[in-house]
C-alpha cells in the first residue's frame, strides 16, 4: 500500500483510507471482465485495470497513476468550488 502527501497537505494512504482509490476500466476491459464472470471464472478479479486514481478528501485533487508506477502521472484540481470545472495541473 502507498502513502504520500497531497499538495494541500492532507496525508493520503490507501491502506488507512481505501475510499480514496478508484480503478478505471476501458469498455473493452470491463466487457472482458464480465465475459470471464459469465464463464464461471473468478468474478472479482479486477487486476486488468491500467489506470487508477486517488481523490483527496480535503481539496478533491485527483492523482492519476499508471498501473506500473507508484508516482502520479497526472494531477487535476478543481478550478471552481462547486466542482464544475477540473483543471489539469501536472503531466
UniProtKB/TrEMBL annotation:
Name recorded for this polypeptide: Uncharacterized protein
Species this protein is from: Winogradskyella haliclonae
Amino acid at each position: 500500500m502507498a502513502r504520500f502527501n497531497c499538495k494541500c497537505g492532507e496525508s493520503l494512504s490507501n491502506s488507512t483510507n481505501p475510499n480514496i482509490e478508484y480503478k478505471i476500466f476501458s469498455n473493452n476491459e470491463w466487457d472482458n471482465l464480465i465475459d470471464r464472470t459469465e464463464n464461471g471464472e473468478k468474478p472479482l478479479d479486477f487486476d486488468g485495470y491500467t489506470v487508477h486514481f486517488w481523490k483527496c478528501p480535503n481539496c478533491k485533487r485527483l492523482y492519476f497513476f499508471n498501473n506500473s508506477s507508484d508516482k502520479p502521472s497526472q494531477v487535476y484540481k478543481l478550478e471552481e468550488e462547486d466542482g464544475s470545472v477540473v483543471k489539469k495541473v501536472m503531466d
